[in-house]
UniProtKB/TrEMBL annotation:
Coiled coil: none
InterPro entries: Diverse_substrate_MTase, Methyltransf_11, SAM-dependent_MTases_sf
Descriptive protein name: Trans-aconitate 3-methyltransferase
A family per Pfam: Methyltransf_11
Lineage of the organism: Eukaryota, Sar, Stramenopiles, Ochrophyta, Pelagophyceae
Keyword Methyltransferase set for record: yes
Length: 290
């Protein structure tokens, strides 16, 4: 069974949530859950390594609406706990995921005991808290030899229409909101060079890359942009302008024949285009405690 930390530890531990993440992900959790991609099977298998999901104690950190949690359950995981600091995301998680307990918590203040897990996963979130304190805390709750798996999906901008859409919305992650932490900027890697991270994960962090895709309707292309935290927090006039800009990009590429909504999505039959996605899975192994 998963051992929880004492109430005193929970009360004394710090909590750190980036303002844009806190506000942006609270804006429309159901939209986030509906339009964000899941993770490729090969990527999840790599995250688990030789761990038997059916018997492992698994923690999903910054679980959001449970997109990664559901994938872990599909792999046979039975002993899973989730932690998510944004109340709207937790509420959507509880609606979408049955049988998995979810706690209010952050990566730098996890409400669990030492060595409580065999695997800790972070899907689409580590860039928000990529620092020494979080890695020390993640190492604390992992058993010796436990795996920390960081997973991300990023739209493949080698496809021209995808590149144009990304260029339209990615300009909004700087400026009035500051320089918003994002996976694609690569700064998260530096956290593993800190002394505390090296002590917890002496082998460092190694990445593997996997192909992924999502079937997307026309509207979901700009809805996905609005699910980005830094777009969700834009003033209404700027959000509306962004939707119009992306709609014009979609019209242009469809008219040129470079984009087609010619695939019926299983389940609802909606006409979709195939959105190519690159998925990265970075794994670090907990070293033995002194």
């Amino acid at each position: 069974m998963i051992r929880r930390a004492s109430r005193d530890l929970q009360r004394m531990s710090p909590r750190c949530i980036h303002g844009v993440a806190s506000e942006g992900f609270a804006a429309d959790a159901s939209l986030y859950d509906r339009v964000r991609p899941s993770y490729p099977a090969l990527g999840v298998a790599h995250a688990l390594g030789d761990v038997d999901a059916a018997w492992a104690r698994i923690l999903d950190v910054a679980s959001g609406t449970g997109i990664l949690t559901r994938r872990l359950l599909e792999f046979g995981a039975r002993d899973v706990a989730a932690v998510e600091p944004v109340a709207a995301m937790r509420a959507e998680f509880e609606r979408a995921v049955a049988g998995v307990p979810i706690s209010d918590g952050t990566a730098d203040a996890l409400p669990f005991g030492d060595g409580a897990f065999d695997v800790a996963c972070v899907g689409q979130a580590f860039h928000w808290f990529a620092n020494e304190q979080s890695l020390v805390e993640l190492g604390r709750v992992l058993a010796d030899g436990g795996r920390l798996a960081l997973l991300w999906n990023l739209e493949d901008d080698s496809e021209p229409w995808v590149r144009a859409v990304r260029e339209a919305y990615e300009v909004h992650d700087t400026g009035a909101q500051g320089d918003v932490p994002q996976y694609r900027k690569g700064r998260w890697r530096a956290a593993f060079e800190t002394p505390g991270a090296r002590a917890a994960f002496p082998g460092g962090c190694e990445s593997a890359f996997f192909d992924n895709f999502l079937l997307t309707t026309r509207a979901e292309i700009w809805e996905r942009a609005l699910s980005k935290s830094y777009c969700a927090t834009l003033p209404p006039d700027q959000r509306n302008a962004l939707v119009a800009e992306i709609a014009a990009i979609v019209d242009h590429y469809e008219a040129s024949g470079a984009l087609a909504f010619d695939v019926a999505r299983p389940g609802d039959g909606a006409p979709c285009a195939r959105l190519p996605i690159n998925s990265e899975v970075a794994v670090a192994v907990r070293g033995a405690r002194a």
